[in-house]
Description:
With 122 residues, chain A is mainly alpha-helical.
Amino acid sequence: MDLLPPLFPDLLLDLLSMALLIGGVFLSISGAVGVIRFPDFYTRLHAAGVTDTLSAGMILAGLMLQAGFTLVTVKLLFILIFLWYTSPVASHALARAAMHTRVEPAEAEVIDADQGDESSAN
Amino acid sequence: MLYFSLLFAVLFGFWLLLSGFWDNGLLLGLGLASSLFVAWIGTRLQSPEQENGYSLGMLLRLPRYLVWLVVAIVKSNIDVVRRVWDPLNQPITPVMGRLPVSQRTSLCKTIYANSITLTPGTVAIEVSDTDVQVHALTRDAFADLAGGEMDREVSRLEVGAGHRRSSPNGKGQA
């Protein structure tokens, strides 16, 4: 960690990493509040997406700043890459399973892009 | 052969970075052997009839797309978070609809659908050869997607900026 001369003073690095961690935690809480507040399964999936993407990304970035130029940072990066590859697959599988078992999207407007007409689903 | 080389390079690089042993001959040899073995199995698992969909050019265009995607993810995250905390001024208007898919290979269709799902506010529910069923948190998010910017970016990743290709049913690009 001390092999390279620090690009920033340590304090600045710590502050930046702290800001990222706090931002990530805030987004995580926002995702949880959204899951509780949104009306149905599909909209809740969107709120959970916040926790999956930017929240996890900011927390991991904050941890990377703490780890510095080490293998730990590389491994944190791997975690982020795998998370961003797999979480949409999980979301898609959930949404698809819900659709196939006829979970009705509440108050969702149905738009048919091919004809351009709009009609209400409920 | 391209697939084998790429797979081997990625696997061995991954092994090196995870293990952190750079100077132990036995361990390096074992890592090398297992990477080669898995790359060989992976190459045999490729079905010869199927079009692969990847190319070296795509790999070079990938970083540009990833940057674009991260920006899109940040923007849509901010939008969803505002709708979580301020439901009175920023109400959600859920929308379900189908959008055309203009990518040719199944790999790029997957990238497109995964990108839709990865950006909060839109989820790809069902993907067919010609279109994708999308559930969006707001009418705006759906309209953004229907505007086709993401579709164009993925197509650009697929074939490059040089030759623009019209979508199969002519509806892809507005």
